[in-house]
Amino acid sequence: MNLTKQVAHNTLIQVSGKIISTILGLFAIALITRYLGRDGFGEYTTVITFLTFFAVAADFGLTLVTVQMISGKIANENKILNNLFGFRLVSALFFLILAPLTVSFFPYSAAIKLGVMITFVSFLFPALNQVLIGLFQKKLNMSSDAIAEMLSRIILLVGILLTKKFNIGLNGILLSTLASAFTSFIFHYIFSFKFTKIKLEFDWIIWKKIINKSWPLAITIVLNLIYLRADTLFLSLFRSQSEVGLYGATYRIIDVLTTIPFMFAGLILPILTTAWLEKNPQYFHKVLQKSFDFMVILIIPLLIGTQFLGQSIMVFVAGKDFAASGTILRILIFAVTAIFLGTMFSHAVVALDKQKTMIGFYIFTSISSLAAYLIFIPRFSYFGAAGVTIYSETLIAIFSAYCVWKYSHFFPKLTIIVKSLISSLLMGTFLYFFAKSYQTSLGGLILLLIISCLIYLITLFLLGGISRSDIEALIKRQNKNIGSTYGGSNL
What we know:
Layout: H1 3-57, H2 62-70, H3 77-96, H4 98-102, H5 110-119, H6 124-138, H7 142-166, H8 170-192, H9 204-238, H10 241-277, H11 281-318, H12 325-351, H13 359-408, H14 415-438, H15 442-462, H16 468-475, H17 479-483
Helix pairs in contact: 1-5, 1-7, 1-9, 1-10, 2-3, 2-6, 3-6, 5-8, 6-8, 7-8, 9-13, 10-11, 10-12, 11-12, 11-14, 11-15, 12-13, 14-15
C-alpha cells in the first residue's frame, strides 16, 4: 500500500473508530445517568473531574512528542520509545498519586473521596497509551488504536450492566471505568508488538530531551484545562452534587460535538502547513476560508436547532431526571459555536508556527476565567459556569483569529454566515410550530431532525451557500485529488 492510500486508510479508520466509540460512549452515559440519578452522576462527575486535573498536569503532550522524536530514519527508535515509556510512567504516577493524598482536604463526601482512591489508577493507563498511540501514528496504523478503544468501551458497557444488575452503586461504575482503561492499555500494548517490544528504560540524557520538547505543550495544556474544566470543579465545591450532575450530563454532549471541528482541523492542518511552508499564501487563505465556511454551515443550524430541541436531546441521552439540562445545553451551545469557529484559527496558528505567541493569551483567559468562576458560580450555579465558558471560548477564538490575521493577513469573508443564518432561521420557524408536538417520542425527534436538516440544506443551496459542484465533490472524490499536495480544494 503506497503512502497516499495509507494516509487515506488511516484517516478513514480514525473517523470510523471515533464514530463507533462515541456511540458506545453515549450509550454508556445513558446507562450511568439513569442508574445513578442526578446526585449519583454528580458524584461520578466530581470524581472524574478532580482526577482529570492531576492527569492533565502529567500530560506533557507526549503523543505529539513521541511522533516528533521517532520520526525520520533513526537508529535508536526502540531506545527512545523505552525511555518515553519510562518517563511517562514516572511522571504520571508522581502527579496521579497526589490526587488521593489531597482529596481529603476538600469538602467532599466520603463517597467522592473513596471514589477518587478507587479510580486514580485508571488515569495511569491512558497516560501510558500516549506513547503507544504516538508509535501507531508514526507507523500509520491507527486501526490498532481504534480497535483497542472500541474493545474498552464494550468492557465499560458490560461493567455498567453488571453494576446495575447487582446494584453495586457508584463504586461499581468507577470500577467499570478502571476495567475499561486497563483493557484499552493492554490491547494498545499487545498491538505495539507488531512494531517493537517496549519496556521501561531510564536514561537521563534522553529524559532531558523529552522535557525540553514537552514543556511548552505542557504549559498550554494546563492553561487549557483551567478555563475548560475549572467550571465543573468549582461547581462541585460551591453547589450541590445534583447541580453538578445536570451540568456534567450536558458537558458529555458538548464533548461529543466538539470532536467534529478538531477531527476536521486535524485533516486540514497538513494542507495549511504545506501551503505556508511553500510560500503560497493565496492557497493558504483559500483553504482556511473554505474551512471556515464549512464550520459555519455546520454550527449555525446546531445553534438554532438546540434552542428548540435541547431538552428533548438531554432527556433522550440522560433520562427524564435530566430534563433541566436542556436549558444548560441551550446556553453552552454558544460556547460550542465559538469552538467550531475558533478551532480552524487555532490550527492555522500552528500551521504558521506561531503557537508560542498564544501562551500570553491563554494565561490571560485562564486567570480572568478563574476569577469569573469564583464570582458567578456561587451566585448563579451552572448558569454562571456556562456563561464564563462562553466567555473563555469566545476569547480564545478571537485571539486565535487575531494571530492569524497578524501573521498571514487573513480575515474571513462573512457572506456564508448571513446565508446560513437565514437558512437556520427558516428551519427554526418550522421547529417553533412543530417541535412541541413531535419531540415527545424518539421517532418524532428523529423525524424533526431529518425534516429540519432538509429545510436547512435546501434553503442554503437555493441561497448559494453550497453549490452543485460542492455536492458533486463531496459525493465523487477523485483519487488523484487525495494524492496531490493541495488535494481536495473543494473542501
